[in-house]
Amino acid sequence: VMGNSSEFQKAVKLVIDTVSFDKDSTVQVFEATIRVLGSLLSAHIIITDTKQPFGDMTIKDYDNELLHLAHDLAVRLLPAFENTKTGIPYPRVNLKKGVPPDSHNETCTAGAGSLLVEFGILSRLLGDSTFEWVARRAVKALWSLRSNNTGLLGNVVNIQTGHWVGKQSGLGAGSDSFYEYLLKSYILFGEKEDLEMFNAAYRNIQNHLRRGREACNEGEGDPPLYVNVNMYTGQLMNTWIDSLQAFFPGLQVLIGDVEDAICLHAFYYAIWKRYGALPERYNWQLQAPDVPFYPLRPELVESTYLLYQATKNPFYLHVGMDILQSLEKYTKAKCGYATLHHVVEKTKEDRMESFFLSETCKYLYLV
Predict the structure, then answer these.
(1) Choosing a second label site near 223 at 20 to 30 A (CA), which of 24, 65, 82, 310?
(2) What average pLDDT does the segment 108-137 reach?
């Protein structure tokens, strides 16, 4: 993305020469898909793109090695989709042996329903519909389990019985990317049913999760906020939101609901301003962190980038700069950037998640 072709070529060569998935290792299907499969596929597309929009990123004698690696990984993930009565995949799979014998029958909505972008791209690149088909089947299975009353989905489901173990409906952990992938899959593939599901889900979210005044910028009451409710009744379940929800303004931009996106983004940015980071969970009633760590997450930055693209308002350049300066000030460590253990005390953890480079830094750079 930055046009550094020599470094890109070095990295690609390193992956081709050293990476093998033939390992006795148990991975999360969701994380392996969005981080590993996704990065192999996007790197492959960058190499083979005839337009080369980032400068010359071609690789001499490249023979689709990254695509073959991605295919190999995906085949090793497929057992997760077998032997489940609902078609919703197991959350974990061993790359050599398939689904571990002591596997849980429970998975979260986001984990099972956010595989369509990567699996869909892989299917289209290979001309093999299997991967897209299993991912789409999982999405449809989850969708069919939504509440008749509210139209909402829970956050944890039993993959054999289709029974909701977690009845919380919200936009944060366990649910977030399910909604994101419905819309992004439609944008990518143009399948009508993805947009129809998203639009229905979005209406139900507005009806049951949104609190605060009707219009973003006028009227009585608090600014809009999306809360966690019981999927069957729409009753409030707790008084916290989590930092993952900060992706939602970006999604609202993509669907064209820019006014609401501006408002919700401002709410998260106000929390960021207070601590120089977003606490993992924030109690909006107590106006204090419930879970005080910040693992360098990208969601607020992605929303900032999309809002800047939509509005071209220089305010979002300032937000980006502000976030960048906070990261420099509080999270920089000797060999990278560290998770904040506590957003108030600014203590650090010896951990830098892969999404920091692949998303947080990327969106900051794009802003």
Answers:
(1) 310
(2) 98
